[in-house]
Every structure is written in C-alpha cells, then in structure tokens.
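To: structure desk
From: M.T.
Subject: fold request, one chain
Message: Could you run this one when you get a chance? Sequence is below, nothing fancy, just the single chain.
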Amino acid sequence: MTLADDAQRALLYEVVTCPKPGLVDPISSGPHPDMDVYLFIDSSLALRSYFETAEKIGKQFEGTDLTEMFQILRRAGQKAEITMFTATNGVNTHKGAIFSLGILVCAESYRLCHRESDVFSIVRHMTDHLVTRDFKKKLMAKPPVTAGEKQYYRYGLTGSRGQAQAGYPIVAEVALPFLRDAKGNLNERLLDTLMKIATRADDSSLIKRAHDPKIVTWLHQEAERYLALGGSQSEAGRQFLKRFDQYCLSHHYSLGGCADLLILTIFIGIRRQII
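Reply: Done. Structure tokens follow.
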C-alpha cells in the first residue's frame, strides 16, 4: 500500500473507533451536532489526492532546507482545506489532520527516499521555528484571529504547531509505545491509546470549548483514572468512560486535538506494523 493509502486508513480507523468521549464515532455525534461518521468518511475520501500530493512532495524534494519542503506542503494543504469544505458543505472535519497528517506523510516519504531512520527528526527539521514564524511575527502585525493564535496570545500555548515543531513527542514517546503493548481487539487498543494521549495532551479543541486552559488538568486526571481502572479491559473502566462521555456531552467538550494525535499514531503504527 502507498503512504496515501495508510493516511486514509488512519483517518477512517480513528472515526470508527468507539465509544470515543467528546468525539464523533458510529454511535454518536458527541458534542458535534453538525457532524456524523458518514461526513467523516466523505471527508476522508475527498482528501485522498492531498495525501498523494504530500507523498509526492516528500519524494521529489531535492533541497537541503526542509522548511522549504514544508512551505510547499502547506500550500497544498490550503488547497486541501477547500476540498474538504466542499465535500462537507463547510463543516470542519479534518483541518487539523490536513496539517499534521500531511506533515507526517511528507516526512515519511522523504525518509524513505533518503534512507533516513527517524521520521520525527525530519518533522522537526521541516517545522523549525514554526511557532515563531506563525505566531510571534504574525501577532506583531495583526490581532489574533484563529483559535490557535488566540490561545497563544492569551495563554502562551503553541497547540498543533508546537507539537509539530517538537517532532510530535506525545506520538513518538507516549502513544506509540502504549499502542504497541495495548491489550484487546483493535478498537479497544485504539480507544485506550486515545485516552493515553489524553493524559498528556493540551487539547486546544477542549480549551476552546471550556474557555480555560486549566481544563487540561482535569482531562489528564480523568484519563489517568480511566486507565488505572483497567481501561477498555475492565467493566469499571468501561462504565467510567460512559460517565466521562456524558460529562463531555453535557458540557459540549471536544477532544479534537487528542483525535488528531491518535490519527498520527495510527498512521505510524500502520507503517511500523504495530497495527
């Protein structure tokens, strides 16, 4: 299979994993009444050509400055956002994944062509000084507009850009080792991996909904409690997840940032045959 195949599988594997608290899955739309699993399938199919482009960019890039490769990819990602919004009638299903999964597909393609060993090191070179370029310089010229800009301006949080610039340490150091050793069927392993990610992620989607960065401390504690109860492999864990899901639903909390990191974990997990 191609890298684009694996990227598409990652998107689809994530959305069908259930029951995911604060997220869309086949059982529930969660706190996203404008979305359902079919919309995510449509979006995933529409983005196939973008991942083919990301793979091609990584394969064909011949320069030495990988930030230039990232800029080429970013322009393709902007076009992919238009494709996504067309497929979903204006609903943002995968904007975060276009950014993050596109980076990993491009980096993995470059790695394979140059026989390098660490895809996350390539990501760090691609996104070198990304936070400074995107936030500090932009915010000197204009007020914050996007959710990411506002959270950086108000709270100093770097969000998905910070994770990319650091080489996705939550994926590399936390989620992938956990997924490798996780018990149960694939759905259970991915569900528990999502909650493992939630023990560490400063989820920007959750912060946006709660209007308070301190909400991530609550998220980390709840996710740790779920795993301590045995996660998907215990009745106590399963019952706790139901209550957690209902709490997220009643407060309109979304774990979209965690979902994006799960997608990346699935992609690399497929590449490394952990899945």
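Reply (cont.): The radius of gyration is 18 Å. Let me know if you need anything else for the meeting.
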